[in-house]
């Protein structure tokens, strides 16, 4: 019987659908774990063979064929170390979210996930059948239980494994990031360890996949629920865990990566999400409309940090309403970051549009229509540059604006990825301040000036919206916490403001349905999380949060 069990955590960044590439990466990691770490076993994340979440790829019959071939390749390509890997397995005429122990060219045993999450961003009941049997592995003479992700959030699966003899639990995960998620995970796992008096090794996926970011942050807790080891968040890597074997298995204390402050963790998630979306989709780089405001300033920083300044292009597109200081601040930031920048005035194009529409608009006063033409000219220019250079347009709208529709369809909403789509405006300022502490690149005036779209004379965001320190808490309660107008008013917010904000949220679902995907950093993001009908009479009900359907032309 081994005195110590050496477990390698394969905290890897995998690509959904790239079964062959994922297998090659895992074979290389297993070889390293065997030769450099002298590990007895290596763990890979939930559904590692396909990447997570594979979504409707799981409905394709040929995916199962690819998975079986890839599993065979792993069996042939890895020796001298046990491997535990997650993958979709078809058996008994059903599809299961599975994990298998591979040893000596054979599949020794397979576990089927019990608890299938079907909330928020998760749709596992759409694809998988539930398992119901515990799985206890014999590794180096030790009885080790195996669970997958959501299994550890409920009492049953870990209890079953411990009753079946498990002295240590291994939990494979693909758990996406949101603010404060790391603390939430640890508390759940620590409680499960204490309740069952068993250590738990928690391995998580890392990397960006469309809107989702997986932060890694893998860790180990002892039977008292105390953390004994944690891997760095947002970083790919192999990490060795040592467990003292015997009647009571005990994790050997090792490095505990620091718990990141909120601004650092959110910023890291945004950088990783942008880097992987651009890289995994094969874009040459990013192009951004740089206005001199805080949203585009933060987006430019994220892009430069994600893929390098040399692959980012900033375009300044002034109009008759653009303040001189906006251009000065935009150029100053681009130069501080070392980003290529150019200036394309939109006034000549704007004039052509107004001339072409002169007869159509005759007798009608200027309104948001003319404002939106400016935004759409800019969107056209950015998309043209994107087409020519292969660089993807990063949009710069924040969650506050997306919530209330303070954005222009086919204008500032035009682009491939929305870096700060899930970041409220008040958090945008905090993240920009955080980035400036690393190196001052955003001019001070950007923080001090009242925010403005600069689409009309002396325009300010507060002409159309409540102040952001009022707006954001209302939006959090309505969008993320599902509170009613009555609940929000009872919490101390002014009734007219609440009803106005909720009306704007409800009326602008049609815009959000057409928006680019963006990094998810809150528990309830637009898109995968919050799915509301565009055509709805809900706002006409007794609480009357607002009217419905497309309104205005923003």
TrEMBL record:
It comes from the Bacteria. It holds the Pfam family NAD_synthase. One of its GO terms (molecular function) is NAD+ synthase (glutamine-hydrolyzing) activity. CDD domains: GAT_Gln-NAD-synth (cd07570), NAD_synthase (cd00553). It catalyses: deamido-NAD(+) + L-glutamine + ATP + H2O = L-glutamate + AMP + diphosphate + NAD(+) + H(+). L-glutamine binds at residues 119, 175, 181. Deamido-NAD(+) binds at residues 372, 401, 511. Keywords: ATP-binding, Ligase, NAD, Nucleotide-binding. Residues 5-245 form the CN hydrolase domain. The active site is at 46 (proton acceptor), 113 (for glutaminase activity), 149 (nucleophile). InterPro entries: C-N_Hydrolase, C-N_Hydrolase_sf, Gln-dep_NAD_synthase, NAD/GMP_synthase, NAD_synthase, Rossmann-like_a/b/a_fold. Residues 530-554 are annotated as: Disordered. ATP binds at residues 289-296, 396. Catalyzes the ATP-dependent amidation of deamido-NAD to form NAD. Uses L-glutamine as a nitrogen source. Belongs to the NAD synthetase family. This is Glutamine-dependent NAD(+) synthetase.
């Amino acid at each position: 019987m081994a005195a110590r069990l050496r477990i390698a955590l394969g905290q890897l960044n995998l690509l959904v659908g790239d079964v062959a590439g994922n297998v090659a990466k895992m074979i290389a990691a297993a070889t390293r774990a065997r030769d450099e770490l002298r590990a007895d076993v290596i763990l890979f994340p939930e559904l590692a063979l396909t990447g997570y979440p594979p979504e409707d790829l799981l409905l394709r019959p040929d995916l199962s064929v690819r998975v079986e071939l890839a599993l065979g390749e792993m069996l042939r390509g890895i020796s001298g170390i046990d491997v535990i890997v997650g993958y979709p397995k078809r058996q008994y005429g059903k599809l299961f979210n599975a994990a298998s122990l591979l040893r000596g060219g054979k599949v020794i045993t397979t576990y089927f996930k019990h608890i299938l999450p079907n909330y928020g961003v998760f749709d596992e009941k759409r694809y998988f059948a539930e398992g119901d049997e515990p799985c206890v592995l014999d590794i180096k003479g030790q009885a080790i239980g195996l669970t997958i992700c959501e299994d550890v959030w409920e009492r049953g699966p870990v209890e079953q494994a411990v009753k079946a003899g498990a002295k240590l639990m291994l939990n494979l995960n693909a758990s996406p990031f949101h603010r404060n998620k790391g603390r939430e995970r640890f508390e759940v796992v620590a409680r499960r360890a204490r309740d069952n008096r068993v250590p738990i090794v928690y391995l998580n996926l890392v990397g960006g996949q469309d809107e989702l970011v997986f932060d890694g942050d893998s860790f180990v807790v002892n039977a008292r629920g105390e953390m004994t080891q944690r891997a760095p968040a947002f970083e790919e890597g192999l990490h060795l865990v040592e467990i003292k074997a015997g009647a009571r298995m005990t994790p050997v204390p090792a490095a505990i990566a620091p718990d990141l402050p909120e601004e650092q963790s959110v910023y890291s998630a945004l950088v990783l999400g942008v880097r992987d979306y651009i890289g995994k989709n094969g874009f040459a780089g990013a192009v951004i409309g740089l206005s001199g405001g805080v949203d585009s300033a933060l987006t430019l920083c994220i892009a430069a940090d994600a893929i390098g300044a040399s692959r980012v292009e900033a375009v300044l597109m002034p109009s008759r309403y653009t303040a001189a200081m906006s251009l000065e601040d935009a150029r100053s930031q681009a130069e501080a970051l070392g980003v290529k920048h150019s200036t394309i005035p939109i006034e000549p194009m704007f004039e052509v549009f107004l001339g072409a529409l002169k007869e159509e608009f005759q007798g009608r006063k200027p309104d948001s229509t003319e404002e939106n033409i400016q935004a759409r000219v800019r969107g056209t220019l950015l998309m043209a540059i994107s087409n020519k250079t292969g660089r993807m347009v990063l949009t710069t709208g924040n969650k506050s604006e997306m919530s209330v529709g303070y954005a222009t369809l086919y204008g500032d909403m035009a682009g491939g990825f929305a870096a700060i789509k899930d970041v409220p405006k008040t958090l945008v300022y905090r993240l920009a301040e955080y980035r400036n502490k690393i190196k001052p690149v955003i001019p001070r005036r950007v923080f001090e000036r009242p925010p403005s779209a600069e689409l009309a004379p002396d325009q300010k965001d507060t002409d159309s919206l409540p102040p952001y320190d009022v707006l954001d808490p209302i939006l959090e309660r309505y969008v993320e916490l599902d509170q009613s107008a009555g609940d929000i008013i009872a919490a101390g917010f002014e009734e007219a403001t609440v009803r106005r904000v909720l009306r704007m949220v409800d009326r602008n679902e049609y815009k959000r349905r057409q928006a680019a995907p963006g990094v998810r950093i809150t528990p309830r993001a637009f898109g995968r999380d919050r799915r509301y009908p565009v055509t709805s009479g809900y706002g006409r009900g007794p609480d009357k949060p607002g009217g419905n359907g497309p309104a205005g032309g923003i």
